Amino acid sequence: MKMEDIARLAAAYPHLWERNMILLPDGWTEITERLLSDLHAIQPPVDGVYGSPLPIMVKRGQGFAVAFVTFNPELGSWTPDKAMALVEAVARFNAATSKTCEVCGKSSTMIVKYMDHRDQQTLCQEHADEALEAANEH
Ligand SMILES: [Zn+2]
Description:
The protein is an alpha+beta fold. It has helices at 3-12, 29-42, 80-97, 125-137; strands at residues 56-60, 65-69, 110-112, 121-123.
């Protein structure tokens, strides 16, 4: 993720920002912002209270990422509708990372596996072609 996006999202959602989001590729910044925006809408921070009503962890895999979100029952108010919206927001993020190009954020067409130590990547056609061309030059 670009430094400017890290600064912008961490400032906009300080109660939701999670350090590992820094490790997500540029192409997934919009997906990450959607998750933060969805979670903020479901349960905004409680005025005057330190701590997040929705603690998050993000784990990046090879060509995908998974968000784990729990809720603090002592902060905010919880209803079945909000619980369902939370499940849907997390599921949307998790599904989107495996369908979105890590470089540009367009729909991905394939997972590129490298023959060296690099992690495999979820890429659109254009960026997969570039990656394969670069690999053939070595
Ligand atoms: Zn791309």
